[in-house]
Amino acid sequence: MAAAAGLLFLLLGALLPGQNLEEFEKRVTEFTLDNGMHFIVIERHQAPVVSFHALVNSGAVNDPGGKTGLAHMFEHMIGKGTMRVGSNNWPEEERALRTIEKTYDALEAERRKGQLADERRLKALEEELDAAIKAADRYVVQNEFPRVIEQNGGVGFNAGTGLDSTQYFYSLPANRMELWFLLQSEWFRRPVYREFYKERDVVREERRMRIESSPVGKLQEALMTAAFVAHPYKSIVGWASDIENLRATDAALFHETYYVPSNITIAVSGDVDPKQVRALAERYYGRLPRGEMPPGVVTVEPEQYGERRVVVESPTQPYIMIGYRRPDQNHPDDPVFDVISGILASGRTGILYKEMVRDSKVALAAGTAAAFPAAKYPNLFLLYAVPNMGKTVAENEEAIYGILDRLKTGKVDDETLQRVKTKVRAGVIRQLDSNAGLASTLTYYHVNYGDWRVLFKSIDIIGAVTADDVQRVAREYFVPKQRTVAWHVQPNAGDSAAKENAE
User: Regarding beta strands 379-387 and 363-372, do their DSSP bridges make them parallel or antiparallel, or are they unpaired?
Assistant: First the structure.
């Protein structure tokens, strides 16, 4: 215990000079442009490099009805470049892209006629659309956008789409900082939907690999769709039929709605002068029009009136997932779920591993996720297990419930509680050991909690969690009424396996 506490102290000392918020705050500058875009600048002069992290406060949860996967498309569009980067003749390419959409409009109009559609005209329009796409492809300079970044010393160029947000990030030498402001601001101002339909096919293939060809992916999706009957916490990649019908015009409308400056937070971390950062931000990002704040998600998941169970047939290693409904990340009980997750699944010291994997050998693996599939809105506390050879899903489910029941009837001992809280706090601090980690973490806390300083407060909040809190939360939330269970069965064994697991 003393060694763990000492490690935490060393981490604090190395990463947070003076071990307090006041000292760290001296290295942070914040400002908001007139159009509403917020910047966080972190000075770290150890090396002449700088990391950039842009967080758009919109993700798959904001996909319009019938157009799931749309937010994810922007992750694929960032590498396609801008009007000036990625094209060998932008005026001609722009005309060619307009021709694609005009032809697609005609094709969709004919399709909407249903049984009255002219099959010969449909085929002709499909061929015309294919020809228009190929014509536009002639103007594409493949991979020029990431190549320009790499040629200027850039590393880590990437993007990621979650249910709650979409993020763009990479690092550059400090003397190339202006390049990021130029390229990224142009893309935010007006992304070019270059090779949109090619990337749509890539996203469709991604769904095929991550969900349709993945037993765990299919089980996870089945759990989410059973647990969330109304709220759009269902799929990041999107539904197959939606993806296959996404349009560049849909993406343009989504961008106009959600990619407004006031919905974007940017962190710049590294060997920087805050005054220079602000001047560049004003010059490049200040030209973006303000726009209206986008609408939030209004659908609230209705009350659950009983346990939900779903079976997925798969000729694979069995797997079971159990999700309990829990409140969002701003609820006072949020840190308690983090601590419970650590108690149950903190590596080889977690109860699930010790009892289910090491001792009884009922499972090959077992774990938790404190907030699943995301945290901005009410979500799930997830538990999962992989049965050992000769063991069943039902045995694993029973073992998990037995462990949860002990959290309700008894109190976790102080040594375990302190060890877990130290590990959770160290995990928070570990995010701050690099420019990229700092930029990512501070944007996350600013967007999700209104102030990056909540990061420091969260360390104290986790430390204040008590054994009584753990017992209270377990009793309140880990009840059958709030539970959704999903598991695998072998094909042609669904009825008997489902009956066995339901008993």
Answer: antiparallel
Q: How confident is the model at residue 499, as a pLDDT?
A: 52
pLDDT in the model for residue 427: 77
Helix (H) or strand (E) holding 118: none
Same domain flag for 171 and 48? yes
Measured N-to-C along each axis, helices 248-258 and 196-207 cross at an angle, to the nearest 10 degrees, of 90
Residue 280 sits in the same domain as residue 313: no
What pLDDT digit, counting tens, does each position of 204-217 carry?
Answer: 999 999 999 999 99
What is the C-alpha separation between 60 and 164, in angstroms, rounded?
A: 7
- Residue 472 structure tokens: 């209270």
Q: Quick one: pLDDT at residue 2?
A: 35
* Phi/psi at 252 (5° precision): -60, -40
Residue 313 and residue 244 share a domain: no
Q: Tell which residue, 224, 79, 234, 236, has the closest CA to residue 161.
A: 236
Beta carbons of 233 and 299 less than 8 angstroms apart: no
What is the domain count for the chain? 2
The residue among 258, 249, 315 whose CA lies nearest residue 104 is 249
Regions of the chain with pLDDT less than 50: 1-19, 494
Task: Provide the domain limits for residue 271.
Answer: 28-87+140-285
Give a yes or no: residue 118 inside a domain.
Answer: no
Q: What is the CATH number of the domain that holds 362?
A: 3.30.830.10
**Alpha helical stretches, state H, 67-139:** 70-77, 90-111, 119-137
Write out pLDDT tens, residues 251-288: 999 999 999 999 999 999 999 999 999 999 999 999 99
Burial label, 444 (beta-carbon count in 10 A; 0-12, 13-18, 19+) = buried
Distances (CA, A) of 31 to 35, 98, 438: 12, 38, 17
| Positive or negative: CA dihedral 80, 204, 447, 256 | positive
Strands across the sheet with 483-489, in order?
Answer: 308-313, 483-489, 320-326, 379-387, 363-372
The secondary structure of the chain in percent helix, strand, coil, rounded to multiples of 5, reads 55, 15, 30
For 286-339, how does the pLDDT look when each residue is reduced to its tens digit (9 = 90+)?
999 999 999 999 999 999 999 999 999 999 899 999 999 999 999 999 999 999
Paired sense of beta strands 166-173 and 379-387, if any: unpaired
Q: What is the strand order of the sheet 264-270 is part of? A: 28-32, 38-43, 264-270, 49-56, 166-173, 155-161
Q: CA nearest 110: which of 127, 93, 98?
A: 127
Distance in angstroms (rounded) separating the CA atoms of residues 294 and 58: 9
Q: At 155, which helix (H) or strand (E)?
A: strand 155-161
Residues 38 and 180 grouped into a single domain: yes
